[in-house]
UniProtKB/TrEMBL annotation:
This is Fatty acid desaturase family protein. GO terms for biological process: lipid biosynthetic process. InterPro entries: Fatty_acid_desaturase (IPR012171). PANTHER family: DELTA(5) FATTY ACID DESATURASE C-RELATED, FATTY ACID DESATURASE 2. GO terms for cellular component: membrane. One of its GO terms (molecular function) is oxidoreductase activity, acting on paired donors, with oxidation of a pair of donors resulting in the reduction of molecular oxygen to two molecules of water. Residues 193-221 are annotated as: Disordered.
Length: 221
């Protein structure tokens, strides 16, 4: 559930917060000390599996005119994309594999194959979302300004069509990620001055040259 009344959770003393920090640091240190060759093998095998899935999916689409092969290729490509974005890209850009010092999977050099740039995603996700997780008015991921996902959000007539908005967000998710840093909601509500809005919107709009322009679209005969 999203957090709307932060004061309710602000009862911890300085000592409580310090003790919590010590416990969290201990957990982090334990995880860092356990990293090794087994983890390195895991990410390398995951990358190899993702590439194999993508090649297989494309071959299924290109090598057969059967409808069953088209569906199999489409599903395989979909799984490959999910693995690339969520298990590899998401974690790489969190710095999960920086300790390996491998430029191919380092958070400072990784660029994924989608409309949004990794630079903007690291800001909107790593910094904003994880700093203000589930705090209404601070974390865009709580409904993305369209969905009512918690009782702490005031209900409006607009929310009657939640299912429609959810479907649109699912279909256009890649472009939503690419536009998130522009903060269109603030621009529409005039909560941002013109210079700031211009700066954000021209710095980098979603890239049309991503995967969507290179994926083979082929209807089964």
């Amino acid at each position: 559930m999203a957090i709307s009344d932060v004061d309710v959770f602000a009862h911890l003393t300085d000592a409580d917060i310090e003790n919590l920090a010590v416990e969290l640091d201990a957990i982090r240190q334990d995880v860092e000390d356990s990293r090794g060759e087994r983890d390195a093998r895991y990410i390398r095998r995951t990358i190899a599996a993702q590439r194999a899935l993508e090649v297989t999916g494309r071959l299924l689409l290109a090598a057969s005119s059967r409808r069953s092969a088209w569906w199999a290729g489409t599903v395989t490509l979909g799984v490959a994309k999910i693995v690339e974005n969520m298990e590899i890209g998401h974690n790489v850009m969190h710095g999960q594999w920086d300790w390996m010092n491998d430029p191919e999977i380092h958070s400072s050099t990784w660029e994924w194959d989608m409309s949004g740039s990794s630079k903007h995603w690291r800001y909107t996700h790593n910094f904003v979302h994880h700093k203000y997780t589930n705090i209404l008015g601070m974390d865009d991921d709580v409904g993305y300004g369209l969905l009512r996902v918690t009782r702490d959000q005031r209900w409006k007539r607009f929310n009657i069509f939640n299912l429609v908005y959810n479907t649109l967000l699912a279909l256009l998710f890649e472009w939503g990620v690419g536009l998130q840093h522009v903060e269109l909601g603030k621009i529409a509500k005039r909560r941002m001055d013109n210079d700031e809005a211009r700066s954000g919107s021209t710095s980098s709009w979603p890239r049309p040259g991503g995967r969507c322009s290179r994926t083979t679209w082929r209807s089964p005969r």
